[in-house]
Amino acid sequence: MNLALFDFDGTLTSKDSLVGFLKYSVSGYRYLINMLRFLPYLILWKLKLMDNGIAKEHLFRIFFKGTNEDIFKAKAKEFSLNELDTMMNEQRVEILKKHQINGDRVIVVSASMRCWLEPWCDKNGIELISTRLEFKNGYFTGRFSTKNCDKEEKTRRIKELLDIKDYESIYAYGDSSGDDDMLKLADIAVKY
User: Fold this and answer.
1) What gap in Å lies between CA 139 and CA 142, rounded to an integer?
2) Which of 96, 153, 167, 192 would you label with 139, given CA atoms 20 to 30 Å apart?
């Protein structure tokens, strides 16, 4: 059996699902206010003075801390099932489907959040490794329950889930420097 690893945003999609989810989840006014509140963290991240995962955790804290878990997850599922298909790069999704037809094990490995990727992956019969949000007592804490699934964390999580030696060939698809470590695992690596 072969293994096919796909990044999600920018690889399978033509738009960023994080931005899409933020805009889908809150009013236009609240989106603008929250982005202004996030601006200092964005600047620090762009200047490479703050890690991407820390900046992203601040973003989620600003937008969603204290949100009811059931309401949040329902909104994420709604976004996943109603919006993600409109963001897809059809040619790349066809490559994924060919791997499925060939009987390969297909896994999406993404820094995006499980809450909106999982319903889409489940619908399409795809395994998922991703970043998770932390909920306690039915509310979002403003923190991640896992490390941001980016760069070397992608490789660590893949190796935690499976033994890559069990696969005849490994294919990996990505589009950014955040995928480079995962692409190094592959016999056949494609960077868009």
Assistant:
1) 9
2) 153
